[in-house]
Specification:
The protein is α+β, with helices and mostly antiparallel strands. The strands form 7 sheets. An 8-stranded parallel beta sheet has the order 3-15-18-19-20-21-22-23. A 7-stranded antiparallel beta sheet has the order 2-27-29-30-35-32-33, covered by helices on one side. β22 (about 485-490), α12 (about 500-515) and β23 (about 520-525) form a beta-alpha-beta unit. α7 (about 355-370) packs parallel to α9 (about 405-420) and α12 (about 500-515) runs parallel beside α13. The protein binds alpha-L-arabinofuranose. Alpha-L-arabinofuranose binds near residues 58, 273 and 488. Alpha-L-arabinofuranose binds near residues 271, 401 and 434.
Length: about 675
Amino acid sequence: MNYPFFSLRALRRSIIAVLPCWFGALSTTAQPQKNTITVQTGLPGKAISPDLFGIFFEDLNYAADGGLYAELVQNGSFEYDSTEQTGWNALSFWELALRGGGTGKLGVKSARLLHANNPHYVAITVEKPGDGVGLANGGFDGIPLKAGEVYEVSFFAHQFFMGRQWSSDDGIKGKPMPVTVRLEAENGDVLAEASWDIAGYDWQHFSAKLTPNRTTDNARLVVLAKAQGGIALDEISLFPSNTFRHHPNGLRADLAQVIADLKPKFIRFPGGCLAHGDGISNFYQWKNTIGPVEQRKGQRNLWGYHQSVGLGYFEYFQFCEDIGAQPLPVVPAGVSCQNSDSSPGMGQQGVPLTELDAYIQDLLDLIEWANGPATSKWGSLRAAAGHPAPFGLKYLGVGNEDKITSVFKERFQRIYAALKANHPEIVVVGTVGPFPDGEDFAQGWAFAKALKVPTVDEHYYASPQWFWDNLQRYDHYDRTAPKVYAGEYAAHDKDRRNTLRSALAEAAACTSFERNGDVVQLASYAPLLARRTHTQWTPDMIYFTGTDVFLTINYYVQQLFSQNSGDTYLATTLSAASPSPTLAVSSVRDSKSGDLIVKIVNGATTTLALSVDLAGLPAGNHPALKIVLSGTDADAVNEDGKPPRVKPERSELTITPVFDYEAPANSLTIFRIKA
Ligand code: AHR
């Protein structure tokens, strides 16, 4: 270990502390009655990553469409497809709406496209208008609306002739088509509506503000054509005006806010497996996700549904900027997921080498798009989207959990060489396979070390006990090797529920990240979001429905670490006659506030008597904030519809440099001592 600021005695005590199971016998020499925590507040400490605690967003569990992306219409561009889910088609989640004796039909067309990336649209043929012929959409499990709030409906449309059924003599030609868009309650009541007379045979954009007069969580958006004739429609959309920071094409305010409240230092996106995709044709391609929404190219989400990419790179970067987080986009390392084509572990496909230069150019273009001047080719697109200033991209992930094959290595090597040559300022985050050990892990590390990749991404989903057993993992890492991004981790307890035990195991891991913040540069829990009724993976950090957000106990742990992070680690040692194997501590200083922050995790089911020695702190009383997260597992579980009863409790107090503390059973305690 390379902790130059430790005295030898402190170092020895530290070893006793961090290796309680292995070296428990050694500690019998000191013989204190209690577990004693000593924090060296007077020594300089070691600089640790200021970006340590961030988040990982992946469009899994309907996290994007039907989730963070505030769009309320589902399949508004008529691009759903049977390759995404059996039985899906361009009209999925739409139905024919016939009102007051109207007759007609819906058809899916590709003849005169709004944009080549958007290859289907709907055609309404009105035979007998009645009170209207059209189509209705119930969004994602019903459209939630709030009385008095403003919603913006928009769509593209043009008139069309209906083949040989009508001629210009029918008197239809030249007459506009009256179109009404309504928000309807479950019982058919009209909550708000707007109408247009649509004239012309070229695509035009229409929009209106609608203010529903009643709150409901199960409305439908209904488009009705009200005269004989034909009307083509595409990109039908309904957004609340109240998106996060009121951005157009923005994010769902309540979900974005709880993410912002985590105070993440970075956001990794768009995956995960989603990034490298199910086969190379399923790569998440950033260029398909920018520009006007109707010109973006949606595609199958490998998690078994459709990604509209309405939430695309511009929106991700904008969100990062809004909440003060570094963007950490992850691009495929020129290979697809090894589980592609339903071939577990064997389906990795590589970009043909003849196409690799073009692929690499896409990545260089991404950096220009993010950081280049508004006058540059790609920077100008960012500026056109409303952001002339560079976004300040610093990190770029290349690859995700890839199998470390020769196909991977050849492509990664070329990508990395090009990034290094053209953008030495970018911190490339490589990958070391899906697991925290094993063949890919070992080979991935050896490869990353040989190439001197700045940082590598490690993943671990494991039992709470695994986390406690591995708290020393990073104590032994080579300080001269690539840094670590603990990019996906979660303690999986029984039935993969969000238990207090899992959250405390993660808290313990976070203390080890802080202690090793000179090695662990970044860390993020996974996955972040899950829509109830569309949850494909558990546990997750935040659950939601169309109207509600449910935080978990694991959320609170992440929030507490992120909100109480620091940039200097202070030597923190433990000593005891029989050290608790479920006690983890760390101490940091935050240079902005000057505050000293001590975190104590007691994973035992009994209270733990502690003595805390803040060595070097001047004598006297010091104002402090104490935050305690504790309770029973039963209170902490986030069952359907019920938030956990366990929440962080805050209290103000004064403390002296040496004090006793009874750490509650199953608890995380944070002392934030004011500068
Ligand atoms: O977090 C869910 C998935 O777990 C990610 O997509 C993948 O990287 C990992 O296997």
